[in-house]
Amino acid sequence: MSEWIDISQALTNDMAHWPGDTPFSYSLTYTKEQTGSVNIGQMTSSLHTGTHIDAPFHFDSNGATIDQLHLDRYIGKAKVINVSHVEAITPAVLEAYNLKNVERLLLRTSLPNDPKRFPEQMPHLDPSIAPFLQKIGVYLLGVDMPSVDAPDSKDLATHHALHKHGVNILENIMLDHVDEGIYELIALPLSIPGADGSPVRAVLRPMKGSDSK
Ligand SMILES: N[C@@H](CC(=O)c1ccccc1NC=O)C(=O)O
User: Fold this and answer.
1) How many CB atoms lie within 10 A of CB 66?
2) Do 103 and 75 contact (CB within 8 A), yes or no?
3) 4 in a labelled binding site
């Protein structure tokens, strides 16, 4: 049996977060010495810190919230492709890969995956990939970047285009240690009724019998 590969960022008090947003923090509220029986922790965080899923409500006030998303999108066969040779990801770039029967697509980009550093610049994901992905049957896009749009984007064009074309968004996965290939993916959101997103523990396991490409 192959081992599961963790592709999530560890949640640490010194991890990067969206500038101006709520950092992650964990602390012990009560120690075992205080309670006499148990240690009890608490955490505070933006839902967009670390590896997370965006719900459409994040960028569309009428959009679905995290509890309304279909769980089967986040569990199942996924393909990892390495697009680190380009700075702009377009349909023409994606056309070079065999994406037949791919429903969940994870992009390993040129961005170094460093959980401690919020990147100033990231590769560009062109909004035109959204209709392309829908046409070939992809309904989940995962990226190893904090966002599918540039940090200074005002219109969030790629978020909106993906949503319009039925493609769900998984962000800030770690893929520097993952080869191209076919995997089983599990990246389930927490059930937080009404929420705009959720941190996830995202893991991959190489699919048995796949020729990896
Ligand atoms: N769209 C980003 C997050 C984002 O834009 C954001 C996250 C936290 C605080 C502010 C944000 N954007 C603009 O102010 C994402 O895809 O998670």
Assistant:
1) 23
2) no
3) no
DSSP at 64: P
- Provide the mean pLDDT of the chain: 96
pLDDT in tens, 25-54: 999 999 999 999 999 999 999 999 999 999
Residue 208: what pLDDT?
Answer: 78
What ipTM does the predicted assembly reach? 0.88
Q: pTM of the prediction?
A: 0.96
- Work out which ligand 1 atom sits closest to the CA atom of 20: 9
Q: How far apart are CA 28 and CA 32, in angstroms?
A: 10
Pocket test residue of 59, 122, 147 for ligand 1, highest count of atoms within 8 A of CB = 147
Domains, the chain:
5-206 (3.50.30.50)
Residue type, 59: F
Q: pLDDT band at residue 2, thresholds of 50, 70 and 90?
A: confident
Whether 61 and 50 have beta carbons less than 8 Å apart is answered as no
Residue nearest to atom 5 of ligand 1 (CA): 151
Nearest-CA neighbor of 21 among 58, 62, 56?
Answer: 58
Residue 17 in marked binding region: no
